[in-house]
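Annotated sample (chain length 308).
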Amino acid sequence: MGMDFSVIGVGHCCQDSICVVEDYPPEDGSTHILSIDDSQGGGAVATALAAAARLGVSCAMMAHLGDDAIGDQIKSGFERCGVDTSLIRRIPGGRSSSSMVMVHPENGSRTKFPFRDALPPLDFDRAQRGALSRAKVVHLDGTRYENAVKAAEIARDAGVTVSLDGCSRQKDNALNLRLAALADILIMNAVYPFAVSGRTDREEALKFMAGLGEKKVVMMTAGSQGSYALIDGRMEHFPAFSVRAVDTTGAGDVFHGAFLARWLESRDIRQCIRFASAVSALKCLKPGGRSGIPTRQEAEAFLAAQSQ
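Output written by the structure step:
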């Protein structure tokens, strides 16, 4: 029998190059890069796992990586964050995903230029299936749709909670509806619920998404506007914590990881959102998606200070 993990992630992982620029130029223009940090990994599920692991949760990533130098960086980045890599498989001759991220120093906004790998879908070998079946939560995104759906089906058959980061969408909306219906915990970005539901009202969109299968959590994050969640059938707004952001890269991904870390301890949705909001805000104080992820002690201290 293999190792057991509280959270297993199946989704996008890449290597980021974080470039702080003087200004963002118009098309066919130019600007100066002030600094480059290519030491941090990225990807929606990957960064969520890095956050959960930083907060003390046992996590593992399940993915394909190329056998290239970028794949080596991604793998070692997981290991530095405390994320287990035994469920990662390397593909001979494959090229791993990478991303260029341009950060504006005035407000921390970021513009991404991702290269998505062309690696084959996961095989879900015996060790991977066993690990998914024994996890407490399987966390997904939709970047590799076939991987996400299969992992969700394996998890649900075993009674494991499925968490979906509603961010990436397929052109065929029926596929988005299918994947969303498999999620127990559905936390979406500010675009996903409107695009998938076809609704223009926020509460109506969330209620539509809540009707897709049986849901424990349905909510959306909206950056500096905070987040919105359906609780007891009604939408509630949760303001974001105010910080002077250096870089917002990965803030939403970190929110997912922190939410799951607290969810494993308490099913109080409001408490989970407040904790995740604090961790996400603190992350924005440093460049890149992972360097600013706080420890649990730092997050709790920040929350205590906010309550005074």
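Annotation: Residues 269-283 form the longest helix (15 residues).
Annotation: The longest strand covers residues 14-21.
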